Amino acid sequence: MLVRPIQQAILDGLNGTEDITFAYDPISLPADPAGQDFLVGAENTLGEGAFIAGLPTEDLRVTSSAFVPGQSVSYSIQVKGDTPATGTVRTEMTATGVPGITVEQDKITVTK
Description:
Elements lengths: L5 E9 L2 E8 L14 E5 L5 E5 L6 E6 L19 E11 L2 E13 L2
Antiparallel strand pairs: 1-2, 2-5, 3-4, 6-7
């Protein structure tokens, strides 16, 4: 197995951007992986990002704009209990642009 050193830096807010830098030792740049395709880059959880196809010849930086808050939502629910007890109320929601399911879970106590 051939190991090549790499240093990765994730910078937040440099000049108003988010940066991910792949810094390579100039004498140990990645070698051809036995004819296989080679990609290097970065992406966020939504699959957005930048890549290059091929072996890098120098340090690489992927730059994106800083996070900007988007939409918000608020909601309320009413829960009615008929027996004194402790329980859990769980709600789930999905939204475009947000990976997965957002879950809110709260313990409640019914006293009457």
